[in-house]
Amino acid sequence: MNRDRSLILAGGAMLLVSLIWGYNYVVMKRVMQYVAPFDFSALRTLIGALSLFAVLALRRRSLRLVAPGTTLWLGLLQTAAFTALLQCALVGGGAGKTAVLVYTMPFWLMAMAWMFLGERMRGVQWLANALALAGLVLVLEPWRMRGDVISAALGVSAGLVWAISAVLVKRLRAKVQVDLLSLTAWQMLLGSLVLCVLAWVLPSEPPRITPYFVGALAYNALFATALAWLLWLFILDRLPAGLAGLSSLAVPAVGVLSGWVELGERPDTMESLGMVCIAAALVGVSVVAMRGRNAVAARTKSGARG
């Protein structure tokens, strides 16, 4: 009964995280009526980092900085570069389309893990990568040379930077024992300081302090950062990693649906077909990953019994 209750709670957490992160693409898009991209990126990450440190202190977890060099690089990539690229992509690009382009990250990560971490790619994974690439071409529609091509490139770049940072995390955790929540808080703080400097140096209009701006900032810092990360760690603690990874599939779907309903961003036929291809590829990759982990777990249990 306790196990069933834990699975139900984890499923509820998966749904809530998907809704928070997916809808946030609309929030980040709309808030730029009141604030410049770098200013908002700096504010949301700095407040988010401080919120995570508050959580660490309340849970009496260690605040010690581990592996400062790698953590700094993570801050530059995962917080500074990723957040800035994503926010700038939303200046001229749709919320739903940007969400889909950013979530090409698993395919970049798969290729990088094959090249730099020695992880083998199976036949289905090669097929999924090819399907995702075809979907990406359909979403971008390079033959039409539309005005949002720069925004699309920024969205893809955000996914690429996210994948690079994931490789760094994998390498770090293979060498050093580090608490994921502490690592997230430190890299976010270091990256936010870089964004603060950029926001101060780059000319922009001061933020217009409106109710929506305050609400969007609170939503990003407290819900999309602190709460969502805590829920994500809760999910990983109670579900297989492959099954937990399936929850990420709902994020771009929620982003597309929210952008359609709230912003009137209706994808055309080619974009819709491309999004379906990318979603199908993500499902294939996640299922393969989950089966692989289950097989390893089964072999481990069998060996322990023997």
Question: What attributes does this structure have?
Answer:
0% strand; 306 residues; single chain; 12 helices; mainly alpha; 81% helix; disordered C terminus
Characterise the protein shown here:
With 306 residues, the protein is an all-alpha fold. The protein has one domain. Helix 1 packs antiparallel against helix 9. It is globular, with a radius of gyration of 19 Å. The C terminus is likely disordered.
Secondary-structure map with pairings?
Elements lengths: L1 H29 L6 H22 L9 H25 L2 H8 L2 H12 L6 H18 L8 H27 L4 H22 L9 H28 L2 H6 L3 H14 L5 H37 L1
What's the oligomerization state? single chain
Tally of alpha and pi helices:
12
Structural class: mainly alpha
Q: What is the CA-based Rg, rounded?
A: 19 Å
The end-to-end distance, rounded to whole angstroms, is: 29 Å
Structural domain tally: 1
Average pLDDT? 81
Helix amount: over 70%
Beta-strand proportion: under 5%
Unreliable stretches covering 5 or more consecutive residues: 296-306
